[in-house]
Automatic annotation (TrEMBL), chains A, B:
Transmembrane segments: none annotated. One of its GO terms (molecular function) is kinase activity. InterPro entries: ATPase_NBD (IPR043129), ROK (IPR000600), ROK_cs (IPR049874), WH-like_DNA-bd_sf (IPR036388), WH_DNA-bd_sf (IPR036390). This is Sugar kinase. It comes from the Bacteria.
Amino acid sequence: MLPEAESAAPAMTAVLTAVLTEGPLSRVTLARRLGLSQAAVTKAARPLIELGYLQELAATERSGPGAGRPASPLAIRADREFFVGVKITADELIGVLCDLGAQVRKSIHRPLLDKDVDYVLTELGHLVDDLIDDRSRTRRLGLAVSGDVDRATGLVRYSPFLHWRDVPLRELAEKATGLTVTVENDVKALTTAEHWFGEGVGAESFALVTVGTGIGCGLVVNGRLVSGSHGVAGEIGHIGVDVNGPACHCGGRGCVEAIAGTDAIVSRAGLSFDDAVNAARAGDVRVSAVFAAAGEAIGCGIAAVANLVGPAHIVVSGEGLAAYDLFETHIRAGFERQAFGAAAQCPLSVRPLPFEEWARGAATVSIQAFVAS
Amino acid sequence: MLPEAESAAPAMTAVLTAVLTEGPLSRVTLARRLGLSQAAVTKAARPLIELGYLQELAATERSGPGAGRPASPLAIRADREFFVGVKITADELIGVLCDLGAQVRKSIHRPLLDKDVDYVLTELGHLVDDLIDDRSRTRRLGLAVSGDVDRATGLVRYSPFLHWRDVPLRELAEKATGLTVTVENDVKALTTAEHWFGEGVGAESFALVTVGTGIGCGLVVNGRLVSGSHGVAGEIGHIGVDVNGPACHCGGRGCVEAIAGTDAIVSRAGLSFDDAVNAARAGDVRVSAVFAAAGEAIGCGIAAVANLVGPAHIVVSGEGLAAYDLFETHIRAGFERQAFGAAAQCPLSVRPLPFEEWARGAATVSIQAFVAS
DNA sequence: GCTCAATAATTTCCTTCGTCAAGTATTGAT
DNA sequence: ATCAATACTTGACGAAGGAAATTATTGAGC
């Protein structure tokens, strides 16, 4: 985050991260929370204030019995730096401009007529130009792509929807936009957003489940995102919950996705997705049963997550959840049945996230990279 | 590990850990592997040699084109310090004496006639006395207990088999034995052993599955053991793999344990476990199918682990695996069918571990605590 | 208003840890 | 014997954070 230095002192990163994710905090509070001395916090905060990332709020917090000098909380100056986040799907680019506090300031969609890498990069360049108001304060771009992505190198190993294989996306996007780029898998990016700026704040472990065409999951364990050794992690969609269930395109049987994915629901209901939703809402017993089975399967998959890694909190979201009124009770039922012992106490938030949230996730990853730099 | 200091320098811990887990290493190699300067390694190693934990081996390693000073690898002196590990089961104590290199030097079983805490502690005292030869070089004891254990405080929150609830085991055992005690869940202890001294060495992520009466799983992600926020983690046994499967005592349906646990096999085969094994080995089709279904269920559960956290390596083990010839192919079949994409590449070792291994796991945890101290 | 207790923030000094760069040690090849 | 190559050690230095004293800012009691 310092203009010159390659990497700032750990205390500086820790202070900035804490203020960013947990809101205004006084130096004493920060010291206690981070296990540092007050002196260390003072020293770490000074350059952050000088560089304009933090500011001192008016003394408001009162502590103790009443007496004592009031604390002056440190807050971020959200407009000090902006970040572009773009989710790349097969048929459009969804872009947002976020401030340092990860608030969305601007949001633009741009259709894609082709999956060709060069074409996408050109369109990306236009999108970024349209989003950025102040180039001097916007230096970073985060990209979110579905599939197997190596965040460290910015390489897209394989993205089935885009038909991309071994595309050095970071390098290419840096050339195309002139920004410092981070690339991450879309679900992981969304998980990061929720971990730093959403319901997962402060949780040592945390899971996010997305429901839609595919069913995915991002995991945070011991405060760190789980990436998976073989490029696979969070594939909740291909957990088998019914040995006698339908065959899945992955070769498995009774996968969550083969029961609860959008395509599965369409083929099982024999209707388009929207018609199925309407039929179920109108009380059609057969179609309702399809949604019920889907919700149960998802709940069962979520219970597997809870049983295995025991996250402190689970958020269920995704496009498919537009119809979440049809899913929710069944998801909870499946979860509660299959969660073992205390794992059933794990709070489950079921709520749809706006579609820009994916792009915001991408921006969040670039904020993280910025803070850590 | 220093007699006086509360906590040694991080570099010292890192050096000792690396030599302990990866065998003799020269200072240059250590420097490269740990991201330290050679000077730092020299400085960290000196006190460790002086205290007798490390020793310099004769120069043997030759590197490069031939010329150059030969490296003198650092190796641990395994007999510098001994550790007692005890696994507490409902009907016996299994104790081992390990050296610093986690080699078992001595192993004793001691039957338990009662589950009363005081009684168990008295027996533990006798066991420890029988195991220890040299009190001056044996200062630590690790305990492994099944159930919900808080390693940080040494509190056994709930152990179903022992009928213990909120037993401050560390405190009590320290009083009873005069040793510094660590308490850990049995599966996690075994996982730790395998991570530091077994097949999981060097892996950033790693999973161990135990098959027996219960079916459990220990996970290491990002180099750290997963503990679970609500005291639950690694409960692979209660992942649901068959919505129409048998009801499980946990309230779920089609849990891995309800299909593949020892009790499940006994009741499904209608024979004692040993008889069932013999029948299956003799070619009894019906009983073989029971084992096949059990293996498939386990494989399916393991695939869920691979899909979710993507460990670099998975080891399958446990008492029940005495009959692993009957399980192995089916475990692999279930795993390969249900593992998604590259997750199927995750190497799977299926092998029984000797029963003392559990006690060795307990000792390993105390070695870890010693090294980190 | 003055003083005191309580709490927050800063300053100064100091320790610790690890790096850098130069020097020493030990080998094989010529 | 000399040199190149590699391993290890040494000592000066610097960065980072801690301890404790100091300063700052408030409310309460008088």
